[in-house]
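Complex record, three chains
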Amino acid sequence: MQREGTDNYRIPSGCAICGIFNRDGKRISGSDIIQAIAIMHERSNGLGGGFAGYGIYPEYKEYYAFHIFYDDDRAKVTCEEYLNKHFDVVNLSRIPTKKHPKIVNEPLIFRYFVLPHPADLFSSQLDEQEYTSLCVTRINTDIEGAYVFSSGKNMGVFKAVGYPEDVGSFYKLDEYNAYCWTAHGRYPTNTPGWWGGAHPFSLLDCSIVHNGEISSYDANRRYIEMFGYKCNLLTDTEVIAYILDFLVRKLGLTYSEAASVIAAPFWSTIDRKDKEEKERLTYLRNTFSSLLITGPFSIIAGFSGGIMALNDRLKLRSMVVGEKGPAVYISSEESAIRKICKDLDSVYSPRGGEPVIYTLRGGIS
Amino acid sequence: MQVNDMKMIKVNEKWCLGCHLCEYYCAFANSGVEDMVKALKDMMIQPKLRIEQKDKISFAVSCRHCEDPICVKSCITGALSIIDNVVSIDKKRCIGCYTCVLVCPYGAVMPSQEGAVRKCELCVGNSVSSPACVSACPNKAIELVEV
Amino acid sequence: MPINYIIPQFEIVRDQSRCIKCRVCERQCANEVHHYDEDYKIMVADESKCVNCHRCVALCPTSALKIVKNQDSFKENGNWTAEIITDVYKQASSGGVLLSSMGNPMKFPVYWDKLLINASQVTNPSIDPLREPMETKTFLGQKKHEIKRDNEGRIISNLGPQLELSTPIMFSAMSYGSLSYNAHESLARAAKSLSILYNTGEGGLHEDFYQYGSNTIVQVASGRFGVHKDYLNAGAAVEIKMGQGAKPGIGGHLPGTKITEDVSKTRMIPVGTDAISPAPHHDIYSIEDLNQLVMSLKHATDFKKPVIVKIAAVHNVSAIASGIARSGADIIAIDGFRGGTGAAPVRIRDNVGIPIELALASVDTRLRNEGIRDNVSLVVGGSIRSSADVVKAIALGADAVYIATAALLALGCHLCRTCYSGKCNWGIATQREDLVKRLNPEIGYERLVNLINAWTHEIKEMMGGMGINSIEALRGNRLMLRGIGLNEKELEILGVRHAGE
């Protein structure tokens, strides 16, 4: 199966995105999100669809849930050897799927609940997250035929080549319950048909679905790669995920501050702010100038305990947010929200460049 | 020229290069001929301003269009008068007595080969819409300023 | 003299039917080429003195003059060209080093002309610069990646000193001495009006220009001309000149004729003697010595000014840049082999150094590979000729560009390359009072402002076409460029794909 990025070509795409988040932590099945993304069928072309769910593995919530694609058994054997060397694997199984006529050429799809080997972790002098993310990168770069497409705790990404509603049915997402769901349908102009290329792209617990094509891609990539990231897939979503991982996990910025970097306000807007805010925004924009993202984009970033929706500064892609009680709905189109929640307390279109962030008010129920 | 649109020629000797281009363009603008070569070739030029030059210093001298001009007072036929703030010459009345040439404190009035005397008339009624010396000067030594 | 080896390079073609004998050509030629013949009553010219500066052509009111290449020729020879033969004659006669001015005129490849820019279509919209904000504001300086917060968790800036530019273009170093007072005044006033910076070059800063200090970069070159504490603190930044593109490996050269009273006072050297800067800084013989000088300058300026290190583009420029990036400098300025100069030995100017396009690409890549690209900002020059060159330079990885020849052209220079004679007819590269007068800073600074505004507008148009609305998203964005007519190796060094890929 041919990967993306191996022939050095970037694949632009236009798409559909959707997200559901419950601030009280109430978990719902995946059927709502599947319905919502199905309405936006015309925005995809069947070459990729995917979902991310948060809170889906309560029994294993302390463990990293690795979802891995294997081209063949040999890749599986090599990869499992690696996993066993670096992690304690408490559970491993095939991810249950249901045959669907439109989902074909499926690879082997396995799930592992793991924690780093305590001794290994200690001697590496890294924190748990860094250790895990490095190992995941290692597998994806070095072990041919194996690809880890989800690696967070108590969350999981499910994706394939096909329309998202078909992918959702294939993975039996109605049998999972999550307090946060995101979904994506892809419309790439060409694709080798590789399952790993679909969205969401995730690194640890941060998952990104993205609609758009960023013009700043190479400037962003050549900068973020200085910090150990390897943009192997050559996709926009990959570089956005790495940027957020760098700013939030490595440097400790909040998601809101990270949004001020990647969708920094125009200088004319910054000039109108009060002195302290002006200094803060100027500092962020100047220090991380190569992480500014230009070109149309509309992203939903999921993370443990929260969700962020963000548009580019010129709002060149659609995004609508609706609220009903503790539930929040985010979508490329209002029709998708109305399909699953007919009457909303409020519905609005966030301004370009202004992040919409929701977090859990308490725990997960 | 409107009465409330008073402008005058200002000369800055600091920038004058003594290139004499202002004289040639002035003569051309007032020649009534369309082509500069035809107007000025093999002719003694009759510019309405002139360059004064000594050692390293040079500057253009042109009529100051004084508010209370001595030349107008001295003109025995009334050929010199103020029209719309410009001291103008009525060629038909001038008899060439050269009194104005002698009394002008700036030496801005000069004898002429035709019509007896010549001096700057701010390019009113000739072929250009604004003073030719200003646009001719390559170094902004002559400027048109609001009064 | 009995044998005339040196044939005049130019012929002066005067259309006698158009000439009105206004004598402006005679009055305005410092080389005394034209004069009025009283007997024959026509203008005549001595072409042996003509340097092709076009002053007479530009001022002739009836366009009667043309300067053409002298048709008188040697037998055609692909190897021994007329220039090379004439150079041998000159050296056989003088026994001296051949001098010339301005940048390398030889036919080496110009890589700017082999790079093409992208435009967005269909999958990504282009942006209209007339209707949407298009930002060219650029900050130069070190960026650090540790976030500092106060007790309330608010972010506090921990960045070192930064330079803020309204557009990523600055005026490059040209010394007072090689340039006239009026040229410097034009550059200073234009820099202030545009909110960018100009560079004093190695001639020190004239006291009249301290008022433009916040738009001035003060240079410390190997001769240390005019360097004292007030000088260092007068500017917005301090630049250590390690080398310049026009003459890598040797120091600046100002002929004695150009060292007037005023120049001598500003440079702190005696009147009339040649000012030849030493080749190296005699206190910098290795990279760690540079580190020391950078620190000294920072201490002398209270750590308030960014320190720039300017180097010529030579063969191991990436390794040098990597060393400088670790030395505490805030900005690296790289000068390519096409860079101009007031005076340089011809052989060094024409044969030493490498193109800035290649140097920039390899330095930017090397610094990113080592993870230190953010330690410094990169400024490039030598030669940037148009707004397209600026866009390509930024896409290759530069933060900003330095322009010098283009600025002089805006002031009236015609690239006659005889600055070293001190008889610049345009009042730019001379100290003769009667010639300096010819450059009125009122006119000069306006022309510079016009030029930069025009380029900035064009840059915005090209950015909009690429779907980019802030200049930082173009920096290092090599996918926005494609090469054309370049071989594999050149494409590899530039880090761009070939057009069609």
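Note: The radius of gyration of chain B is 15 Å.
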